[in-house]
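Recap slide: OsmC-like protein, sequence and predicted structure.
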Amino acid sequence: MSLTDVIDGTRQAVQTDRHNAAVSFSVDHELAANTATVVEVRVRDHAFTVDEPPALGGTDQAANPVEYALAALGSCQVITYQFWAARLGIPLDAVRVKVDGDLDLHGFFGFDESTRPGFSDVRVSVELEGPASPEAYEQLRRAVDEHCPVLDLFRNQTPVTTTVR
């Protein structure tokens, strides 16, 4: 099924009933047995591991949470570029994205309560290849910036509720 087919099918389903546009995602996490930092993650029928590098007390068995956050942003950018290129009819042969983020550990470790524990700066570098004009690729970039769900998470405050049982 092509991205155009997905777009058309979704448009039809949403026009039939706007509630068809509402989706929810769920991810389960559990600390691995006999570890201090290894987290086992389950998403639908997929599983992966999260850990910290030794400098942060981990065993470096996998990427850490902030690296996965950057990976989520970069992956969402690549997918959103593909999606919007198809939607706008802009030919696109290749998309490469690199995401860098700066974090000050004063916030995470609580050494300075005025320091944010999250990223202080995130930089997204996108390389597009294809036969379209620079103006078309700029139009595509604007569409992606307006519609990328993970970029929206980075740019805007999202309500989060935590319940401890």
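DSSP finds five helices and five strands in the chain.
Helices lie at 3-16, 65-88, 105-109, 134-147, 149-155.
(End of recap.)
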